[in-house]
């Protein structure tokens, strides 16, 4: 009898592992089990289905050549049997059996396996709020949720939406509502920033500011107490007040579905998630697992990490498929790369944010740079802001995050750093990282190299100063007389500010500093600023050498202040 | 007396090294020498100046904040002295002196140095063709050439152009002429492909086909014998005939300007170029060099490499600036990344092409894949073709090249592989490379991971077949009866071909193969094809398992045939 591989869960990891194994071992029998009747879909596409970018739900279930990945597809094209609407209720490792229940008939049965794959994914984290059961309150867990949300949206019955949670899905859903359907949308987030843990509050504020310009409202640092309404949702009550809502989306993260694994005694993390080795093998050598239900290794510090992303599931699924067939393939670690489109801008990152790095015990600092994403003389370009997180003592690059007009261009820099993350790179590895160059695509000294150079300069004490958040504090305190705000751009650029703030704004163009530095007070903090922080950096070096004691460069300059939303 | 650093050459490397050093060592004196009166410009922007994308030549000499990098700029802003229109004629290492001649006055003098930087760049390779001296025959060596070409182009006096050399500059100039100025343009190339040595003829043909569709003509495998005309150029005579021309651009590569270095006894390569260590130090510890006049190390096989690119010069310049100040910075090696925009498409690469890898002694093979550059269900997307070069025995990834609609998206994949090249990656390192994922920017199984998976499948013997060039040979030989061309797409896709080629085209949709394989001949080569090579790969696996002996997958499918220009 041929070997039988059973795969529990058929969304992303399961089908990949099953089909890969079957391609290598055409003689084997493979059975995919899923409790849903809809399976093998691109769940990450749900916000784009809701927005209308993806017109038909089936598009998320089709191959690139327009075939729906249903039972006959897997049978005929892939040679894989599918038991849909079938729930795996128990794994009997001793007898190598999976107990299943047909959810349509209620019939129970037992399936023998030689090797098993657990790809049970994750479930939206339930907030269990009073009023969650009201009509038009949704979690975004599967295609059924997606179809209900889309049906309501297209019917035009929602005028106001509240999204709870400013993570990836929350922000994507907010964009979908506001951009394509003109729904008045408010995002509520318990943390004081969007994308908590993914980037600094400074970078997050840039994304938030852009979304606000596009009409999305944010209530940060607020918890939701309850949802109210008469049958249907009517309002969301938060720690700070009430928000009217015809629809509520709750996207507060996901938790790994490790129950089956846990109950059969497989090693799991205390905080949730099945533990696997680099071969994606569980504590039972006949059972593999991957995707949203496992814990993997963080390439930055080798710590355990939960990284529920479709891309992880696909790559891990392929590794499992190979290992089921006796190959020794590995998935060593992940850097935690991400990218999210927010209307006309994008944010992306890899590795650790500054906050995450500190939490992990690194003595970390970050630097921020804003620069054109290709040759500054090339006519078609966008600005890109990058923030790099480095460890002071070891000079290791711990993370890179960004905010940019061209998400593709930014991803091109993020991927490059993600790729080297497992080699534990230091700053110099990014200073010299070879970004493919010609003027339409990069700068000769590319923004990616430049952010590493800036980190180098910061650690060397050559570039010292602050970001827009600290500038805003200084500026708010300008009446104290402790600061001299010095604009080192040419007069024409500084003139509007000199007129508006005659008492607080000073101007000496950078090139005139050697002749005019004696005009500057020696007893104040010199807060230097220019367009993007380049000239003010050079001015800071000059003034340092001239003996000024407290010279502070506004890193990112006016461009970052504007993106950050400083009102100046 | 303060230390004096002298820098010979002020285009890209020189200014970078000078300014970086000066920023670290504000007390030192730095002198930049250049024989031209125009210096510190972005030479890579010349084609975009000619095209009109860059309207004013000064834009190539300005900073991002619109200041022209002239003598006063370097003096006031950077604290660097400039001697322009000054030629360095001799380096006297014993006395640590540079002999210079003021080209305007003829006055000779001697400059003492403590440390020296040679950034003399490269010069266009002269073909010394009969007729080169005719009016309107240009090399593209500096801004003066650029200004002359641009003046002629804008005056409308050129109807027909010939570009000699199908390298980066040649192709960019051809685009500039044809796209923006409607000039009838022909590119002549001695090799049988565009971008020789940078990619395979197959990939090159895709770029060529696109440029032909945009109106550029190509004469490949032809040498230029002479240029003819009466005062002004009228025609170019090649090994195969004559081409009318009002303007001729000769872009046959560049050769490093190592004369000064060679004459003062610094170690140079036999094939040209100053030899430097990883600190960018020459054989004299007081003299550094970098940019277009040096030989660096190829990250793929640690062999010497000449890589004249503005991005190299900038990064190396920064390293030199640091080392002049006593830091120990390194530029260990380069992968040789490149990207070029060709009208609506782009080509890019890193590492070695298949041909270069074989020449370097690797037992190399390549695989080619065509796929959407982001989630296939996302409405805005382009196709990306990638070709990966791997070493059979060691599974090392030696190079990656591509052709795509979105150059930004392709560069995002190229950079990622470029970044890991110095770590000598194997296929698995790219299979698992963490491309930042969300549907608007990548596929869950991204095109970059997929090309590595394909290389894995090819080396495992699972995916066997051919590219469009070999398909074209088979198809040309279709009357021999040796082949069965089997279209495994659904009937609707195959139908036009069945109608057009009833004798030679067969169709069994992939899913029907298990039931219908007995219809297929056992004594012919089965040449499988689908849209992009995915279904035909799966069909090939099925037919292999069913006992067919010669099953050949057309990798890249119809999409690659079309891009390659196969007339079917």
From TrEMBL, chains A, B:
Pfam families: Pyr_redox_2, Pyr_redox_dim, Rhodanese. Residues 479-566 form the Rhodanese domain. Keywords: FAD, Flavoprotein, Oxidoreductase, Redox-active center. The keyword Flavoprotein applies. It comes from the Bacteria. Its cofactor is FAD. GO terms for molecular function: oxidoreductase activity. Belongs to the class-III pyridine nucleotide-disulfide oxidoreductase family. This is Pyridine nucleotide-disulphide oxidoreductase dimerisation region.
